Amino acid sequence: MCDFDYYIEEFGGCCFEESEEFGEYVDAAIEYVGKVTRGNADYEDDDIKNCICALAEVYLQVSGKGGFDECKLEEKLKHTAAIYLPPLLTGEM
Fold first, then answer.
1. How far apart are CA 80 and CA 76, in angstroms?
2. CA proximity to 83, closest of 60, 50, 34, 46
3. Which of 2, 27, 45, 62 sits at a 20 to 30 Å CA gap from 39?
4. CA proximity to 66, closest of 18, 14, 4
5. Number of DSSP helices (H) and strands (E) in the chain, helices first
6. In terms of pLDDT, which residue wins out, 5 or 88?
7. Among the listed residues 66, 2, 11, the one whose alpha carbon sits nearest the alpha carbon of residue 30
8. Rounded CA Rg of the chain
9. What's the average model confidence in pLDDT over 13-41?
10. Left, alpha or beta for 42 (phi > 0: left; psi -120 to 50: alpha)?
11. Are residues 61 and 31 in contact, defined by beta-carbon separation less than 8 angstroms?
12. What's the average model confidence in pLDDT over 4-27?
């Protein structure tokens, strides 16, 4: 599963300073990946973990800390997931 150590060491993330803060957003990111993959995600796969990390950063931006417009949340989530997830996994072609 994607954790804070993975976020820092493998993903190279720098938006979250503490594990607790990352944990606040990672659950929403995992839920979104489950939704778009219709439950077919392998959460040990590095592409899935990277997607979760990137989505957690999107949720952080939406929370106001990054200045992202909340109205565009779904569009931004979909775009971010498309970068990391194979089209066959999400049903997109």
1. 6
2. 50
3. 62
4. 14
5. 5, 0
6. 5
7. 2
8. 12
9. 94
10. beta
11. no
12. 96
Whole-number Å distance between alpha carbons of 65 and 49: 23
**CB half-sphere exposure, 14, CA atoms < 13 A:** 1
b/e 42-60 (16+ beta carbons within 10 angstroms → b): eeeeeebbbbbbbbbbbbb
The phi and psi torsions of 50 (rounded to 5 degrees) equal -65, -40
How far apart are the C-alpha atoms of 83 and 47, rounded to whole Å?
9
Quick: pLDDT tens for 53-91: 999 999 998 887 555 566 678 888 989 999 998 775 656
Handedness of CA 61, 9, 27, 50 (dihedral sign): positive
- Residue 68 contacts by C-beta under 8 Å, 6 or more apart in sequence? 58, 61, 62, 76
C-alpha 71, offset from chain centre: 18
Q: Which positions ≥6 away from 11 have C-beta within 8 Å?
A: 49, 50, 53, 54
